[in-house]
Amino acid sequence: MEKLQLTTTFAVYSSTAELPQHIAALMEQAVAVRKRSYAPYSKFHVGAALLLSNGEVVLGSNQENAAYPSGLCAERVAIFHAGAVYPDAAVVAMAISAAAESKVVTQPIPPCGACRQSIAEYELKQETPIEIYFMGEEGKVYCSESLKNLLPLTFGGEYL
Ligand code: THU
């Protein structure tokens, strides 16, 4: 038996003020769209903004449903929208911001497992990494330079 050790690295920015200017602007759009999320059940609001290789920005926010599993996370709303409207453009960066109604979220909120798998599909398809920046409502911003850092041993179509 041998052990396979996988390490993962994130850049940690102390606040949005430290981000590169174009990413700070993208995060501002994630915050703005977060405020338009539809989350009457969880009261947890998430916004995602994608910067595409053609310069377009595509937005998403979580959309909940009374039949709970029918709702969708902000990240998947955004990336499916990008795939539907700009199928030939690569996703360069994703900015995510999350806020709760009950408290101020100060820790970075990472994408859930299902969103990671969905983002992986696009990273594998475009063959270039997607930078993922995520934060709460305020405070630190974590950056993963590729989805692979968030989902080591990624399952993809090459196994099928
Ligand atoms: N949510 C997201 O939008 N993105 C995530 O990665 C985690 C969770 C949403 C789904 C649901 O509407 C609410 O946050 C609470 O789970």
Task: List the defining traits of the structure above.
160 residues; alpha+beta; Cytidine Deaminase, domain 2; 25% helix; binds tetrahydrodeoxyuridine
Plain-language structure description:
This protein is of the alpha+beta class and 160 residues long. It is 25% helix and 22% strand. The protein has helices spanning 21-34, 74-85, 113-126; strands at residues 11-13, 44-52, 57-61, 91-100, 131-135, 141-144. The protein has a 6-stranded mixed beta sheet with strand order 1-6-5-4-2-3. Residues 39, 42, 44, 46, 62, 64, 71, 73-75, 111-112, 115 line the site of tetrahydrodeoxyuridine (THU).
Tally the beta strands: 6
* Backbone CA Rg: 15 Å
Structural class: alpha+beta
How many domain modules?
A: 1
What is the helix fraction of residues, given as a range? 25-40%
Query: Largest sheet at a glance?
Result: 6 strands, mixed
**What does the overall shape look like?**
globular
CATH uppermost class: Alpha Beta
pLDDT below 50 for ≥5 consecutive residues: which ranges?
Answer: none
CATH topology: Cytidine Deaminase, domain 2
CATH superfamily: Cytidine Deaminase, domain 2
How much of the polypeptide forms β-strand, as a percent range?
15-25%
Spell out the helices and strands N to C: EHEEHEHEE
- Strand arrangement, largest sheet? 1-6-5-4-2-3
Calculate the terminal CA-CA distance, rounded to whole Å: 27 Å
CATH architecture: 3-Layer(aba) Sandwich
Overall average pLDDT: 98
